[in-house]
Design a protein that fits this description.
Distance between the termini of chain B: 139 Å
Oligomer: heterodimer
Order of helices and strands of chain A: HEEEEEEEEEEEEEE
Number of helices of chain B: 2
Number of strands of chain B: 11
CATH superfamily of one domain in chain B: Immunoglobulins
Helix content of chain A: 10-25%
Radius of gyration of chain B: 31 Å
Structural class of chain B: alpha+beta
Shape of chain B: elongated
Strand content of chain A: 25-35%
Distance between the termini of chain A: 71 Å
Number of domains of chain A: 1
Largest sheet of chain A: 9 strands, mixed
Strand content of chain B: 35-45%
Chain lengths: 187, 189
Amino acid sequence: MKAVITSMVVAIILALIFSLPALAQESGTITITMTGVNDISISLDKTQWPLGEVATDTEYMTSPPIEWCTLTVEGNCNVNTFILGEDTEWIDNPSAYKWTLSTDGTNGDNVYGLQFRISGDTTRGPLSDGYVPITKTQSEFWPYSGGSGSSLAPGDTKQFGLKLLTPTYFVGSRQMQTQITISAVAA
Amino acid sequence: MIRHIKLAGLIVALLAIFLPSFTLAQDVNFSVSPAEVHIDDLPPGETAEFELTIHNKEELAHNFTFTTFQPPEEERREGRAEFPDDSWISFSSPKIEVAAKSEANVTVTVAIPREQKLSGEEWEIWLGVTAESRDLLAVRLYARLLVSTTPAVGARPNAGLVAGIVVGIVLLGCGSYYYFRRRTRPKRF
């Protein structure tokens, strides 16, 4: 009788030895880590550029041209920043009429160009004049590929200005509106 | 003369691009934390949840919207691949209003489908928080989300379980056989 009980106990123990680790793996722990106490934040000291009435095929620049707006890093982590443009829409009926944002800063009929320039950047951009086209694809603001700059640290600032090139043709007397998004991510 | 009138019509086509100056400034000073979230060992078929905190530092309440963004390869952390499907990430609400000088949380849920091919992967995607504004310049803050899945889900655990059960059955069978054999053996006097 003793042998029977012993063999039963051994059987149960062996079964548990094999199956418990397996069951334990089925219910593995998911680890969620929030890196440090990182808090990401940037601010802009200017968000409006009231141009008023504009003419066709004309270039407008912010004033001052390249120190118009100041971006400040306010969180507690270093950041990389990006810029994104969009089409300009007629405020009264956005789906009915728009100016398309060009991909290279140039203009055309109902096509407009937008560019930015960061203070201190004198050779960046397709014309190596410091001006970089703003497009509908999010692209580098600061730092940028091929540049010597590094990520912005808390307290760092960057001054920049904008340049608008109006379409060669557009429908007049319509109030238009667009938005440029400046974004940041932890470096 | 007609040509001149047409030309004048084009040049004097007057527009007010961007909002007029008398519009109230709507710029928003806000922060998002954490700036980076790691979810490790997430088995395909399981979900994970965490919270993003939005701190509205302004004197006015503001609406914030949430989106996902697939960063280009050069912006991702080393060794991280593109997150396969944005729809696996959901926010408890697509938009929240945060009162002046206060914070609010949004719950982010990551649900990976139960598919063997999704095991042992390391992905990255960005979670964007944008303050709603009608100004020309707007700010969007991204939190990096890095997700890694458990390797070879289900294969080894199931094999171990089956092996354990088989060994248990065999040993129990042997024990039972031995027990009944002893019971049916004629007793000697």
